Amino acid sequence: MTEQPLLSIRDLKTHFHTDDGVVKAVDGVSFDVHRGETVCIVGESGSGKSVTSESITQLIPMPPGEIVEGSVYYDGNDITTMTEDGVRSLRGSQIGHVFQNPQGALNPVYTVGYQIREAILSHRDVSKAEARELAVELLEEVGIPEAPTRVDDYPHEFSGGMKQRVVIAIALACDPEMLIADEPTTALDVTIEAQILDLFRHLQQELDMSIIFITHDLGVVAEIADRVVVMYAGKVMETGSVEKIFENPAHPYTKALLECLPGQAGLEPIPGALPSVTDPPNGCRFHDRCPYAIDMCRTGEQPPLHDLPGDHAVSCIHYEDGDGDLPELEDVDRMDAAIGGAR
Ligand code: SF4
Question: What does pTM read for this prediction?
Answer without folding.
Answer: 0.90
